[in-house]
What we know:
Blueprint: E1 2-5, H1 20-43, E2 50-55, H2 62-66, H3 74-82, H4 90-102, E3 111-114
Parallel strand pairs: 1-2, 2-3
Amino acid sequence: VIVHIGSMSAYRVPNDKGGPGFYAATKMAVRALTEALRRELRAEGVPIRIACLSPGVVASEFSANYHSVPEGDRAQHAQEVYSKHKVILPEDIADAAWYILESPPHIDVNDILIRSAEDPNI
């Protein structure tokens, strides 16, 4: 089983400044790679399951890194980003990955989109 980590940005291009179009394009490429690899390996008779897990906003260091927030301002940045609505926790992503890995061999989970039910961008 192969699990690629994509992003909700593969399904919608964010409106932020700072290169969101480029980021979205790379995550769209991850989706395409996942599907192409599945088809190519299956055509060769390789019994493989490949999934793409595409999370929305996750409570992590990613936002601060993505927006190049200086080290001293990261706590305030996290408060601003994560106080707007309830966000996904890293454990939620781990649970989704575990679901993919533990699915029976006859089940091929292709793509999981996971985002907060309170995400205003849905």
